[in-house]
Amino acid sequence: MAKKNVRPSAAATTPKVQSPPAELRYADELAVMREADTAARPEGWKLSPTSVVDFICGSDGEKVGARKSDALVISEKFVGPRDIVQRCVVTLAGERGLMLVGEPGTAKSMLGELLAAAISGSGGLAVQGTAGTTEDQIRYGWNYAMLLDRGPTPLALVPSPVMQAMRRGSIVRFEEITRCLPEVQDALISILSERRMMIPELDDEDSSLFAAPGFSLVATANLRDRGVSEMSAALKRRFNFETIAPISDAQRECQLVASRAATMLSETGGDQAIDQALVELLVTVFRDLRSGRTDEGWQVNRPSTVMSTAEAVAVATAIMRESVFFPSGFDPVSRMPGHLLGVVLKDDEKDRERLLTYWDGPVQRRAKSGGQLWKRLAEARGVLEDA
Ligand SMILES: Nc1ncnc2c1ncn2[C@@H]1O[C@H](COP(=O)(O)OP(=O)(O)OP(=O)(O)O)[C@@H](O)[C@H]1O
Ligand SMILES: [Mg+2]
């Protein structure tokens, strides 16, 4: 009997984890794309540049696959201009690193992970930048027991994710690079320009590591953290910068919030339908507070915290989850101010007043002009004062 040519779904074969990495979450899409992709690609890449962009931005409803039986529509993962993603791909095939900068919660890390998963098959090689990051975490450290026993041999060396990526010829991610001290960041200069890491402790033949084809680096930097301006000019020159802005289109932001909230709920065992009207209300509030201006042209006093899409997803998910845990008499709209306060009120008590001013202005006006949901939202104003 002919063998059935159907690939078991990756989701069915991998153990459950809380937040699967991109290569697991989208394993089926990646497998189908790899099989169907016959176009030329840079050395060391798992997909061609066009397929990498399609994987991240979606295939626009078109099915992709070498065989009809397991062809798939590739989902849109990053909501944003396709040409930004295209430029990111071009940078990674070249001799510079890629630096994604922007406000918090604009999907910089997600984009970096998707690029690494598509190009190298995994986004797992990553350095998390903190004020305590040391050069060892960028270059290499030592297994001191072995070092004392055998001296500086390649076996005693503990490679950093950057070193592993150079060996494998893959993408390494550097999260929140500007949180590291500038002199620590500078360890990357020679790695990016010469694509080589010197290991002077080892014998001559092992003392330089040359990056394999496919190696490159994606860094992210948050504009609210210590500035990109503090990076050395020499390091800046080794990166191409891409600024990632919040989603410009309100409708696309609503769709994203609804679909991400549904995914997050299903990953934690919930399967309730997302209330579309609630999402629209929530996203409108977020967009007004983020931009400082409503669609009607009214001025809004912006809070000091960032009203990112990521936070909107978190609030939508929390409200839906609350409706499952505490269903009795649940009104999602009246729960919104409490959750919103949790986002807004982080370190400046004046942000509560800003939120109240927003309630007394745009929320009231929309309630008065007949918006039922806005009316319920206006009625819940007391939560903002009490919480
Ligand atoms: N343009 C977008 N496309 C898709 N998802 C988005 C977009 N903007 C925000 N998100 C949502 O925001 C979540 C968080 O994004 P991510 O953590 O990558 O942001 P970030 O820019 O790295 O934030 P931070 O600066 O705080 O590290 C994503 O998982 C996604 O749900
Ligand atoms: Mg991030």
Question: How is this structure best described in words?
Answer:
The protein has helices at residues 10-13, 22-25, 27-36, 49-57, 82-92, 108-120, 144-150, 161-168, 182-185, 187-194, 233-236, 250-267, 276-291, 309-325, 332-344, 350-368, 372-379, 382-386; strands at residues 63-64, 72-73, 97-102, 126-128, 140-142, 157-159, 171-175, 196-198, 208-210, 216-222, 239-243. With 387 residues, the protein is an alpha/beta fold. It has 2 domains: 19-243, P-loop containing nucleotide triphosphate hydrolases (Rossmann fold, 3-Layer(aba) Sandwich), CATH 3.40.50; 250-386. The strands form 4 sheets. A 5-stranded parallel sheet has the order 4-7-10-3-11. The chain has a two-stranded antiparallel sheet with strand order 1-2. The longest helix has 19 residues, at 350-368. The structure holds adenosine-5'-triphosphate and magnesium ion (MG). Magnesium ion (MG) binds next to helix 6. The site of adenosine-5'-triphosphate (ATP) has 19 residues, from helix 6, strand 10, helix 12 and helix 14.
